[in-house]
Amino acid sequence: MIIIVDTNFLMYVAKYRIDLLSELDSLFMKFEVVIPQKVFSELQKLEKSKGMDKFAASLALEIIEKLLSKKKLEIKGIEARNADDEIVKLVEEMQKKEKIKVCTMDRKLADRVKKLGAGMVKIKQKKRISEE
User: Fold this and answer.
1) Which phi and psi angles does 51 have, rounded to 5°?
2) What is the pLDDT of residues 51-78, one digit of tens each?
3) Of 71, 62, 10, 18, which Cα lies nearest the Cα of 36?
4) How far separated are the first and last CA of the chain, in Å rounded?
5) Which of 19, 24, 45, 74 ranks highest by number of CB atoms within 10 Å?
6) In 3D, which of 118, 96, 115, 111 has the Cα closest to residue 4?
7) Apex 30 CA angle, 118 and 38, nearest 5
8) How many other CB atoms are found less than 10 A from the CB of residue 53?
9) CA nearest neighbour of 61 among 99, 2, 7
10) Distance of alpha carbon 21 from alpha carbon 128, whole angstroms
């Protein structure tokens, strides 16, 4: 199972202090998390901004570092205009080999990847994640 994570999802995970790895472990037996390169770049830009976005982006980058150190994450890039398009292209490319779940709070992106057959993971009650 491949779990592709969107920027806004990581920002919410950081903001609500959800233990992403623990939550994913409880939902899926075997998985790999993929962070699209454009999502990683967006977080780096947000970390240099001001206010709450800066704080959440910084925490999100710490989560990424933790997952990288546990070898549970890969940062993968593919040619695309923006992060949403990159996620859609990754779903199209990767679902040929494995089952895909996308973590996002963005309804438009969710609709796009559902049409491709990807499953969804959402944040529920600001404290846990669940599969849809």
Assistant:
1) 85, -155
2) 778 888 999 999 899 888 888 899 999 9
3) 10
4) 15
5) 24
6) 118
7) 50
8) 15
9) 7
10) 11
- Please count the other Cβ atoms lying within 10 Å of the Cβ belonging to residue 106: 17
For 2-131, CATH number? 3.40.50.1010
What's the pLDDT tens digit per position in 84-129?
999 999 999 999 889 999 999 999 999 999 999 999 999 988 888 8
* 102's tokens: 């996308």
* Residue reference for tokens 């999502």: 39
- Whole-angstrom Cα distance, residue 27 to residue 31? 10
Q: Which two tokens stand for residue 69?
A: 């150190």
Residue 110, amino acid: A
pTM of the model: 0.91
Q: List Cα–Cα distances, 76 to 5, 47, 131, in angstroms.
A: 11, 20, 23
